[in-house]
Write a structure and sequence with these properties.
heterodimer; A: 101 residues; mainly alpha; Helix Hairpins; 3 helices; 77% helix; elongated; B: 168 residues; Four Helix Bundle (Hemerythrin (Met), subunit A); 2 domains; 6 helices; globular
Chain lengths: 101, 168
């Protein structure tokens, strides 16, 4: 059995769903952030697979951009989390409910 | 051989992603993320994108996971026992995940996907450079600008919280 596009797409979807579960179910902001990164990575697998099996380069170039954006995003997000921790002394999401109506 | 490698790396990525989701300790989660990235880099090599695999390991495993570990050390979060998720969240998670998997399955069953053109050697650095500096020139510049803004933003964010602490 040859490995082709559907295998990669399915793998990408399952990885995305794992990250999605993590974002919804975990309580620690840092772990939620890691799961967000997992979702981004899952999307890059799908892009690279489409690019490979269609014999183009555009998907790979998009993966480049996603990696760059993710690096910037992680830097800003972690700075925000550190600022939040200094203000509140916790990173558990249950404790961060001051915007609740 | 390629089949075996695909299943090996896919399993590595999925199992360690599961580790990220379930592990109680954030350090274990970060190391799981690292392993998952190694698996994904292996898949990129199988997809003839060795350069992307290299960049992924360099940027993610080298910088992002190290940054996560530093922040975990800095924040010194204790393992607080947390309440189980509300039922609504569980239902939403299951429904969302199931919808996505069903969508991809139906795509696999019904859609006409191009069967692998898959040329032998794969793109080289020169091909990437050609694309990045012709078709995608404007996005490259925008991304460079965005990195600059992100750097400034991080500096401002960390500085502000320092001042807030001083005034307290």
């Amino acid at each position: 059995m040859i490995i082709d596009l559907p295998h990669y797409l399915l793998l990408s979807a399952v990885l995305f769903v794992l990250g999605f579960f993590g974002v919804l179910l975990r309580k620690n902001t840092l772990v939620i952030y890691m799961c967000l990164e997992l979702m981004l990575i899952a999307a890059t697998i799908a892009l690279a697979a489409f690019s490979h099996f269609n014999d183009t380069l555009d998907g790979n170039v998009f993966v480049f951009f996603i990696l760059t954006i993710a690096a910037a995003e992680v830097a800003v997000g972690l700075a925000i989390i550190v600022a939040l921790f200094r203000q509140r002394g916790t990173v558990q999401v249950e404790a961060l409910n001051h915007l609740r109506h | 051989m390629a089949n075996f490698l695909f299943y090996f790396f896919a399993l590595l990525a999925l199992v360690s992603a599961g580790l990220v989701v379930v592990s109680k300790n954030p350090v274990n989660a970060a190391l799981g993320l690292l392993l998952s990235l190694v698996g994904v880099a292996g898949l990129f090599v199988l997809l003839n994108a060795a350069l992307l695999a290299f960049v992924l390991l360099l940027v993610y495993a080298g910088a992002v996971v190290a940054l996560f570990l530093f922040i975990i050390m800095l924040l010194d979060t204790r393992l607080e026992p947390s309440k189980p998720s509300p039922r609504l969240t569980l239902i939403a998670a299951t429904l969302g995940g199931a919808l996505l998997v069903v969508g991809v399955l139906s795509l696999n069953q019904r859609a006409i996907l191009l069967a692998g053109g898959a040329s032998g050697t794969g793109p080289t650095l020169k091909h990437y450079a050609e694309q990045l500096f012709t078709t995608y020139l404007l996005p490259v510049q925008l991304v460079g600008f965005l990195l600059l803004i992100a750097m400034l933003g991080v500096i401002v964010l960390s500085k502000k919280s320092d001042q807030a602490e001083e005034t307290l």
